[in-house]
Design goal:
Elements lengths: L6 H4 L10 H12 L2 H15 L4 H8 L3 H18 L11 H32 L24 H19 L15
Helix pairs in contact: 3-4, 4-5
């Protein structure tokens, strides 16, 4: 009586157990990786396992031996980095970081206002006039604009003349402004 019991005798039929999550994520990661990256990883693992020489692996990958060793070093460093324990505590998110920076800005603004008030009190205590506000004249307008550096004007003239030459085929250096020349 070694016959298997029928499905009705076994009870309810269950679907096969799904693979554990670690297996699924590994398979998914491997399938999503670049084909060339998988080739390189396989070659490096073969060398580390002793199945292939580094020079043979480099030749199979179509790279120099030196490049292979650099690639192997990067792979081992990545392995070591991946084996580090995960950092505990709350994970950094852009929203939390922005909120922390806003708090820091508010704290620094309060501190700045406090120091400015202390400076005004100290100035009043010694009968010292406050320093003038830079950048504005007595009329409240800003000062004159500074001239652009001569080097920048020369570069602009060279660029513009190059544009004109390319468009018309002839040199139009006379149309570029002469910098440093006196009339």
């Amino acid at each position: 009586m070694n016959a298997k019991p029928s499905a009705a005798e076994q009870g309810p039929v269950h679907a096969p157990k799904p693979a554990p999550p670690s297996k699924l994520s590994f398979d998914r990661a491997i399938s999503q990786a670049d084909r060339e990256a998988r080739r390189r990883a396989a070659a490096i693992l073969e060398v580390l396992a002793g199945a292939r020489k580094p020079s043979d692996a480099a030749q199979a990958l179509g790279i120099s031996s030196m490049r292979y060793y650099l690639l192997e070093t990067r792979a081992i460093l990545g392995l070591v980095k991946a084996c580090e324990p995960p950092k505990l505590g709350p994970k950094g998110s852009p929203d939390r970081e922005a909120q922390a920076l806003r708090k820091q800005v508010a704290r620094l603004e309060r501190e700045c206002a406090r120091y400015a008030a202390l400076a005004r009190v100290a100035q009043r205590a010694v009968n010292l006039a406050p320093p003038p506000v830079p950048g504005k004249s007595a009329t409240g307008k800003k000062g004159r604009r500074t001239k652009p550096p001569v080097r920048a004007v020369r570069m602009l003239a060279r660029i513009q003349s190059g544009l004109h030459e390319g468009a018309s085929g002839e040199t139009q250096a006379a149309s570029a402004p002469a910098v440093g020349a006196t009339p």
